[in-house]
UniProtKB/TrEMBL annotation, chain A:
Residues 21-139 form the Peptidase M16 N-terminal domain. InterPro entries: Metalloenz_LuxS/M16, MPP/UQCRC_Complex, Pept_M16_N, Peptidase_M16_C. Gene3D superfamilies: Metalloenzyme, LuxS/M16 peptidase-like. The lineage of its organism: Bacteria, Bacillati, Actinomycetota, Actinomycetes, Micromonosporales. Belongs to the peptidase M16 family. It comes from Micromonospora endolithica. Pfam families: Peptidase_M16 (PF00675), Peptidase_M16_C (PF05193). It comes from the Bacteria. Residues 181-359 form the Peptidase M16 C-terminal domain. This is Insulinase family protein. GO terms for molecular function: metal ion binding.
Automatic annotation (TrEMBL), chain B:
Residues 31-162 form the Peptidase M16 N-terminal domain. Residues 185-358 form the Peptidase M16 C-terminal domain. GO terms for molecular function: metal ion binding. This is Insulinase family protein. SUPFAM superfamilies: LuxS/MPP-like metallohydrolase. It comes from the Bacteria. InterPro entries: Metalloenz_LuxS/M16, MPP/UQCRC_Complex, Pept_M16_N, Peptidase_M16_C.
Length: 429, 444
């Protein structure tokens, strides 16, 4: 296996207007991934405007000065491409993977909506996409058992006023109140070339991409001052939070959550390995102890994962669902015990090797496509100022020791600092 | 204006080539592989003729329970030791089960592929199948299905399938079974299904850098101790669309959305109209730019998304539309969806729409076939449907060559808006009267 976590070339430049451009050439297949990271997410949303960054993402597909309504999707799909966008607390990303001969079309489309969205934005479009997003909220969070767990965990983890206090999907009340002028201002404020990273991976050379980037994006003016999100780097701890919800769910489910370290920090590397030891696969501690051993938990529904957020101590979420006849209290106690033991029962060499092998495969799986690579390069350029730092990520994970896991567990997974969210089924007659 | 006004045209076309396919007979089984030079990751997938259609009627979910039982220990080691051994290689056993096949695969850095295939074969060919373990796994699977069926969707899917194909047929029942069918399985069902279908050699699919892989060794490991030949399959099942539309209401009190499943029977995979049918389905509901998504999402705002397409397996197929719409607009959303299906059936597609559909389907062959996992899935398609090595190249050509007349004819022939079953899973107390008044069909 290569020593580096990224055995492909990386070339970068910065246009005069501040747009950073990252290129990683790979001629294996005639496909090219184009990816824009904008350094704006739901952490930038003020009170009363929750859900706006994500609703705005929807508006970016509805036309711009030279692209008619509905034409964006049609042009990309009509060129054979795949496309999407996502919004999270940290950032908004837009991406398409195209047959390589359509690279220029993708850049033209992205430039047009970066530089020319506002004149094409209409009340009708806003009203329509507001309805779409409200249906997205119903479908993903409201109409499924346990679907609102993330909406409940965030305010338990982060206090009011913290940029991660509210969920990216926003509240129905705020979405209903969204007006056109706010979105016009949102674009003017954040969708500037100096607040974005353009990454192109695949069947294209850096020279070609740099020239095309300058041609299409070069004349978009920089915005001199982009207001930062509120600082969330320090979160007051030492206060366990407990919430119990009785809802229409088929079995008790418990979530244990902690604030850990920001994504990208040495501490978060340790948390990533720790979460894999704890909750990934049948060899994990949760599976062995709760699903197989004591048989408290449903085997397919135990897990632990870090949420990759970079601007504040990131959450670690641990979850289990009760087997029939097992009470929520018993499951919760069992789950807490296994988490507590991360600080007291040393992780063995076999546990560590297992976790690192699974993480290595996950790493190469993400890098096996040009779009997977483009998104990671854009992330490292945006959040750490250097896409090449991506190559250090895998070696850093593989260097984590058992002692570090015990130290980090003792530091950030204490019961005094624990969030516990429990779902109980409604009494049935 | 600072932006470039004129939309750029394409650069010189760069032809896509599906990776070189290697086929070999090893130790009584078939190896089908694709060479991915320089790829660090590799996938090996054992393809068995043990899909849901091989499960006896009344024993739905047998394959899924057996899949779980495979990991409960082997002739050589117990469940925990097995989990630690395979996960130490960086993979788990990934199970795929559809109507036509049972697939179990591993995904690892290429230098660990041989060891991973040995462990895969150990679980598939020599599982312990201890009766207590099998019963426990069965109970867990029944609970898992009960949890899953608490989500919107599975009950509606089951209602549609039963109505299209008849619940007295295996293919009229849920592919993975339901909580009751799984709970009723006994140990012997599982051990018999294993001995019947899991010790035939099958096909080993490999996607990776073949210069770093010994295919003969992989095949020898995968097929060791196997016996028995292929078993014939039944002929395609012709299902006549029913006369008249009907509505099936599945009550989900308190639901803030109605889950829609609309469908009717359609031809099987090998039907000569496969390509024009696929394109007609793409224009109607298979892409973001489709007629259904445009109207129901982008114009009306009734939904986060709606999809419709022809789904085909070896012996049968169906046209199906799925969506979730806000409860208050359930009836208008259904009326408009049925309207678009009818319009497409009656008047066909336009050249503008077809141009997008054919370029998109053809382009996806280069854009989506990148990872070893995706290539392995493409090889699996070749094996399951007896397709030649140059299938993907030919498919691209036939997609690009399909014209408006062919695709419109396929829509006219294979869409049956008057025969649709409309399954609505939602808050019946809120929507029943409106559905009855919509004139779409009788509520049964």
């Amino acid at each position: 296996m290569p020593d580096s976590g990224y055995p492909w070339p990386i070339e970068t430049t910065r246009l005069d207007n501040g747009l950073r451009v990252v290129v990683s050439e790979d001629r294996t297949a005639p496909a090219v991934a184009v990816n824009l990271w904008y350094d704006v997410g739901s952490r930038h949303e003020p009170q009363g405007q929750t859900g706006f960054a994500h609703l705005f993402e929807h508006l970016m597909f509805e036309g711009s000065v030279n692209v008619a309504k509905t034409e964006h999707m049609k042009l990309v799909q009509g060129a054979g491409g795949s496309l999407n966008a996502t919004t999270n607390p940290d950032r908004t990303n837009y991406f398409e993977t195209m047959p390589a001969e359509h690279l220029e079309l993708a850049l033209w489309l992205e430039a047009d909506r970066m530089g020319g969205l506002v004149p094409a934005l209409t009340q009708e479009t806003l009203d329509n996409q507001r309805d779409v997003v409200k249906n997205e909220r119903r479908q993903r969070y409201e109409n499924v058992p346990y679907g609102d767990a993330w909406l409940r965990l965030l305010p338990l983890l982060y206090p009011p006023g913290h940029p991660y206090h509210h969920a990216t999907i926003g509240s129905m009340e705020d979405l209903n109140a969204a007006d056109l002028a706010t979105f016009q201002a949102f674009h003017a404020t954040y969708y500037a070339p100096n607040n974005a990273v353009l990454t192109v991976v695949g069947d294209a050379s850096a020279t070609e991409v740099f020239a095309l980037a300058d041609k299409y994006f070069g004349a978009i003016p920089a915005r001199p001052e982009i207001p930062p999100a509120p600082d969330g780097s320090v979160v007051p701890g030492g206060r366990p939070a407990v919430e119990t919800v009785t809802a229409d769910v088929p079995a008790p489910r418990v979530f244990v959550a902690h604030r850990t370290h920001p994504f990208g920090s040495a501490g978060y590397h340790v948390v990533t390995v720790l979460a894999t030891v704890l909750g990934s696969g049948r060899g994990s501690r949760l599976y062995q102890r709760l699903a197989d051993g004591e048989r408290l938990a449903q085997p397919d529904l135990v897990g632990a994962y870090g949420v990759d957020l970079a601007h504040a101590p990131a959450p670690l979420i641990v979850t289990a669902t009760a087997r029939p006849g097992v009470s929520a209290e018993r499951l919760s106690a069992g789950l807490s015990d296994v988490v507590d033991e991360l600080a007291t029962v040393p992780v063995t060499a076999a546990e560590l090797d297992r976790a690192k092998a699974l993480l290595s495969t996950a790493w190469w799986r993400q890098l096996s496509t040009v779009d997977g690579r483009a998104d990671l390069l854009g992330r490292y350029a945006t959040q750490f100022g250097d896409p090449a730092r991506l190559a250090d990520q895998l070696p850093a994970l593989l260097a984590v020791t058992s002692e570090q896991i015990a130290e980090v567990a003792a530091e950030v997974l204490t019961a005094a600092d624990r969030v516990t969210l429990t779902y109980l089924p409604e009494e049935t007659s | 204006m600072t932006l470039i006004v004129d939309r750029p045209g394409p650069g010189p076309a760069r032809p896509y080539r599906f990776p070189q396919v290697v086929r070999r007979t090893v130790a009584g089984g078939q190896v089908v592989a694709a060479h991915l030079p320089g790829q660090n990751l590799a996938v090996a997938l054992l393809l068995l003729d043990a899909g849901a259609e091989r499960e006896p009627t009344g024993k739905e979910g047998l394959g899924a329970v057996l899949a779980k039982a495979l990991e409960e220990g082997t002739a050589q080691r117990d469940a925990t030791a097995y989990a630690l051994a395979i996960e130490a290689l960086g993979t788990d056993l990934v199970i795929g089960l559809d109507w036509d096949s049972f697939q179990v695969s591993v995904q690892v850095p290429v230098d660990r592929l041989a060891a991973a295939v040995e462990l895969l074969a150990e679980a598939v060919r020599t599982p312990k199948l201890d009766p207590d373990d099998v019963r426990r796994v069965r109970d867990d699977e029944a609970t898992a299905l009960r949890m899953d069926w608490a989500n919107p969707g599975p009950r509606a899917d089951a209602a549609l399938r039963a109505d299209l194909f008849g619940a007295d047929n295996r293919w009229g029942r849920p592919m993975y079974g339901d909580p009751e069918s799984v709970a009723a399985l006994d140990v012997e069902d599982v051990t018999v299904f294993h001995s019947e279908w899991f010790i035939r050699p099958g096909t080993l699919v490999v996607a990776g850098d073949l210069e770093r892989v010994d295919l003969d060794a992989l095949g020898a490991a995968a097929f060791a101790g196997t016996g028995g030949g292929p078993v014939g399959r039944g002929a395609p099942i012709a299902v006549t669309p029913r006369d008249g539309r009907r509505i099936i209401l599945v009550d989900r009190p308190g639901s803030v959305q109605s889950t829609l499943r609309l469908g009717h029977p359609a031809p099987h995979r090998a039907h000569p109209d496969h390509v024009p049918m696929t394109l007609a389905g793409t224009v109607l509901g298979g892409a973001f730019t489709s007629r259904l998504n445009h109207l129901i999402r982008e114009v009306r705002g009734y939904t986060y998304g709606i999809r419709g397409e022809f789904g085909t397996s070896r012996r049968f197929g169906r046209f199906a539309v799925s969506s979730g719409v806000q409860t208050a607009v359930t009836a208008p959303a259904l009326v408009e969806a049925v309207g678009e299906i009818s319009r497409t059936q009656e008047t066909g597609v336009t050249e503008d729409e077809l141009a997008v559909a054919r370029s998109w389907r053809a382009g996806q062959l280069s854009v989506e076939l990148q990872s070893p996992r995706a290539i392995a899935a493409a090889l699996t398609t070749l094996v399951v449907h007896d397709l030649p090595d140059d299938y993907h190249a030919r498919l691209r050509e036939s997609l690009l060559a399909a014209d408006v007349a062919q695709v419109s004819a396929a829509a006219a022939e294979h869409l049956h808006p008057g025969s649709l079953t409309l399954v609505v899973e939602g808050d019946a107390a809120l929507i029943r009267d409106e559905l009855a008044a919509a004139g779409l069909g009788e509520i049964v």
